Amino acid sequence: MNRSRFSFGNLTVSVRALGLALLSAVLLAGQADAQNADAVARRLQSRYRALGALRAEFVQTLGTSRLSGTLTVSGNAYRIELPDQTLVTDGRTMWSYSRSDHQVVVQDYDAARLGFSIGQVFTDYLSVFRVTGATTATVGGVRHDVLALVPRERGSTVRDATLYVRSSDAIPTRVRVRDVNGRSLSFDLRNVRLNPRLPRGTFAFRAPAGAEVVDLRS
User: Fold this and answer.
1) What is residue 197's predicted lDDT score, i.e. its pLDDT?
2) Which of 34, 38, 83, 95 is least surrounded by CB atoms within 10 angstroms?
3) So where are the chain's domains?
4) Which residues, in sequence order, are bridge partners of residue 164?
């Protein structure tokens, strides 16, 4: 008997079965990745909502330009201090003060129209960005969950973003953003302090004497 004989029909069934099995594995892996990404995203928001406030130092890098600043957030409000600029929102109104121009721009706060601000990472980033995947990475010897994000709104100036979150306490430490022109903007956070005592008026802004005020509120 020739033991090398086999049925082409059976082979076709086996190949189809194998193909279906592989497809199912890929789909299940995709579902697992999506579920993991959603879990990390929800954990980050839950962790932040449990805090009264947070303050951190950060380094902003755009090309060869590097700027150091501070970030203070509480609920939907945040304050960002850079050498030449101060950004403040109480969740309803945004103030942007340029020291070099001695000008304050006042406008209604609309997270979706900002493009990207480091303050959004701790406030409403899930309303502005959609999580498309999650991986893990080691940064400075510390394990991080890494979230891939894309804007929810069409026409955004942001193409995509990558958020690094410490696995141990769900605190973001690094953000990478690419705009539609391919330029990369990064933020690296350090000296993160939880529930610091904040001065009264942290999330309000009064224009300095003599500053030009441009009010764009509707």
Assistant:
1) 93
2) 83
3) 47-215
4) 146, 174
Nearest to 167 by CA among 133, 141, 204, 148: 141
Measured at the alpha carbon of residue 14, what is the angle toward residues 11 and 15, in degrees to the nearest 5?
85
Whether domain 47-215 has CATH 3.90.550.10: no
pLDDT at 13 over 50: no
Mean pLDDT, to the nearest integer, of 210-214? 97
CB atoms under 10 Å from CB of 60, counted, come to 17
- Percent of the chain residues topping a pLDDT of 70: 81
131 close to 37: Cβ distance less than 8 angstroms: yes
Q: Which residues lie below 8 Å from residue 51, measured CB to CB, with a gap of 6+?
A: 194, 195
How, if at all, do strands 158-166 and 142-151 pair? antiparallel
pTM summary value: 0.72
